[in-house]
Amino acid sequence: MKAKCVICEQIEILDDDSALAKRLRNRPVHTYLCNECDERIKQKTLKRLETGKFITNRGIKVKNDLD
Ligand SMILES: [Zn+2]
């Protein structure tokens, strides 16, 4: 099946039998992210967590699973 990345609009061909293809068939196609963008989102999320940690360390103590 074909899947279009929601961020860069790159079209990728997925193996119909792959777990990802099966998941996408049950969900709207717009949830698909290519590996590149998926990785980028992960990095952004990590950065946001680091920033959040920095702010919370000034006051409230928050348990951080990344430690
Ligand atoms: Zn992409």
Biggest sheet, strands in spatial order? 1-2
Bound molecules: zinc ion
Q: Could you tell me the number of beta strands?
A: 2
Number of domains: 1
Q: Which class of secondary structure composition applies to the elements?
A: mainly alpha
Q: In angstroms, what is the radius of gyration? A: 17 Å
Helix content: 40-55%
Beta-strand share of residues: 5-15%
**In DSSP terms, counting alpha (H) and pi (I) runs of 4 or more, how many helices?**
2
Q: Which spans of ≥5 residues are poorly predicted at pLDDT below 50?
A: none
Distance between the ends: 39 Å
On the 0 to 100 scale, the average pLDDT is 80
Shape: elongated
Structure report:
By secondary structure, this protein is mainly α. The protein has one domain (2-56). Helices cover 43% and strands 9% of the residues. The chain contains two helices and two strands; from the N terminus they run ββαα. The chain has helices at 19-25, 35-56, and strands spanning 2-4, 11-13. Strands 1-2 form a two-stranded antiparallel sheet. It is elongated. 3% of the residues are buried. The model has no long low-confidence stretch (mean pLDDT 80). Zinc ion is lined by residues 5, 7-8, 10, 33-34, 36-37.
Helices and strands in order:
Elements (H helix, E strand, L loop, with lengths): L1 E3 L6 E3 L5 H7 L9 H22 L11
Antiparallel strand pairs: 1-2
The structure holds zinc ion.
Zinc ion binds next to helix 2.
Summarize the structure.
This protein has 67 residues and is mainly alpha-helical. It contains two helices and two strands. It has helices spanning 19-25, 35-56; strands at residues 2-4, 11-13.
